[in-house]
Amino acid sequence: MPKNLAELAHAALMAGHTPGAGTSHAVPTRLDSTTEAAVADTCIRDDLGSVLLFHRRKDARFAEELYFSTRLDDGSWAAAEHLSGGAMGIDPTDARKIASILNGRSLALFGESETELLTGRPQADDGYEMLRFFELLVDKEASHLEIKNASPEADPERSLIKPLISQVALLALFPGERLTIHAMARKGTSSYRLGEPYELIGPAPGHVADSPIWRDEDSSMTNPES
Fold it and tell me: Could you give the 3-state DSSP secondary structure of residue 164?
């Protein structure tokens, strides 16, 4: 059992590294009476992995934390490092409250932040690039997201499937990227779209981020018990 949030984030990424292991089975993905911290979602872009965690603080408020890691030469992940976080305005386990915020939509913006990270990509300036992180609330009927890269150089016919483990999805965009997101539901062996698509835009190339968006300055960053 992970001892703190950093270990939980690392375990979530390693679960995907282990053949046949699904994140939802390897680490807690639901907050309940016995689970004080859970993985809301993971997002892997090239050799960067990010993890969104939800947890209960000692003051009984719900909080979220965003962690990141880099992939090692053997395909595993380095220790997770904290990026940002803070108290949440809602109970992330309250499906009725989430439905109220969605208000009939299949997708709605829940959080957004930017930070500069070492990506090592050829187009990165000195190896560093600005990444923009989005959190999207998703309709409870959705099983996965369909992601199409609408960037000028991307293949318009290619799409990616992102499974969901909660009603909050985490996405990370590189500079200049434009993504079109559809919430998808399964019916038998086929899938169909729910509602309208959501457009996400990454940082402008060369953009310098403001301070990461924090919801609450007094949130604890290290332990689910805080």
Answer: coil
Between 18 and 113, the higher pLDDT residue: 113
Reply yes or no on whether the pLDDT at 101 is more than 70: yes
What is the value of pTM for the model shown?
A: 0.85
Name the residue with tokens 């947890």.
55
Which residue stretches of the chain are H helix? Answer: 5-17, 23-26, 95-102
pLDDT band at 6 (very low <50, low <70, confident <90, very high): very high
Q: Which distant-in-sequence residues (6+ apart) come within 8 Å of 50 by Cβ?
A: 42, 43, 44, 66, 67, 68, 69, 83, 133, 170, 172
Which residues are registered as beta bridge partners of 201? 178
pLDDT digits 0-9 by tens, 46-63 = 899 999 999 988 888 899
d(CA 193, CA 182): 6
Mean per-residue pLDDT of the chain:
85
Find, among 132, 38, 143, the residue nearest to 91 by Cα: 38
State how far the Cα of 90 lies from the Cα of 105, in Å rounded to an integer: 18
Burial 153-190 (b: 16+ CB within 10 A, else e): eeeeeeeeebebbbbbbbbbbbbbbebebbbbbeeeee
| 57 close to 220: Cβ distance less than 8 angstroms | yes
Q: Which residues on adjacent β-strands are paired with residue 184? A: 144, 193
Whole-number Å distance between alpha carbons of 141 and 153: 33
Average pLDDT in the 148-160 region? 85
